[in-house]
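Work Package 3 (structural annotation) set out to generate three-dimensional models for the target panel prioritized at the project kickoff. During this period the team completed the workflow that converts sequence records into discrete structure tokens, so that structures can be stored uniformly alongside our sequence database. As a representative example, we reproduce one entry of 398 residues exactly as it appears in the project archive.
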Amino acid sequence: MKVRIDKEKCVACGACVDACPQGAITVADEIAQVDDRCNLCGLCVDACAYEAISLPEIRGPKTEGVQAYRGVWVAGEQHDGEVHPVTHELLGAGRRLADKLGVELAVVLMGQGLATAGKELVGYGADRVYLVEDPALVPFTDEIHAKVLAELIQVKKPEILLAGATATGRSYIPRVAAALRTGLTADCTGLEIGDDRLLYQTRPAFGGNVMATIICPNRRPQMATVRPRVMRKPAFDGQRQGVLETFTPSPAALFSRVKVVTSVKDAQDTTPLTEADVVVTGGRGLQKPENFKLIRELALLINGAVGASRSVVDEGWMPYSHQVGQTGKTVSPKLYMACGVSGAIQHVVGMQGSEIIVAVNKDPHAPIFDVANYGVVADLFEFLPALIRKLREERGDL
């Protein structure tokens, strides 16, 4: 499916060719032509001054009784009984959406022995906590969790479901959307309720060059995932009151064709990237992988995490788990140091929410300085060792 060209109105001006980010439009035989790379983004429609381009009418199957769906849900995430911070962050966003709609905010926790964790989530804004406890839910398997959550949604019918765009969320939330035949917007950076009571979901598109706002008017629930540290964690209120409700899934939902034999945690000598208040990131300016020892040493000194740009990860200098950016992790620490990072838009998308950004680059025209609060124009091989020495002197290590 692609955009339609009105041959009577098209004057072959080429404006649509320049507007298309996919390169799907060409002009031949004095008329614009569209190939299969078209993804219906609509930018060419806006660019055409002659109204010769239109989007096809898409008729999706409407859900009967959309009005029967009510409430905002958060798909809670926990590991070994400890609730992932993204769940708290989503409760903050969900509370704002639920208040705007005048509906209940609920969170779903799946696993075993989660009553205490469930009560704590009430303090972070939940009106109701659905506890789904069964031995089959431990350890996590995306097949079982997806079937159980889809079954609970079919019974309770929430209008909105929010989930974390973590490794866990990415693995099973798309399964839930597919099972319910509804839409899912991934990696959202903004969530708002419109005057039509629909969820307006904003996310970067086309390499971060366009911010797309997406709605799902005909299906329920409206589903969105949000990366950790994008939304702010709400303050805990120990006086809040809420309801803990248990749900028993069907035997069919608890059956899986996959068995987890063992889990191996990623060994890190610094703070996990998405949980750190300080992140020190290295880019291609480090020249070779051995020089990342400077980044690691500085991060250890200031109790920070080690980050890496996409180019560095693509070169194999650092593992993907350290990548900051649109295709990596989103971070919003109190202090973000970018060392030898040029500042491509894909990287900036992943760290622009940081409170203080310090950039170190010998190129005074590097784009990273456009978003930095403080910029250091210097050779990082001179600056970083000097900074490390000074920090060690302050600590009395020298």
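Residues 59-63 have pLDDT under 50 and may be disordered.
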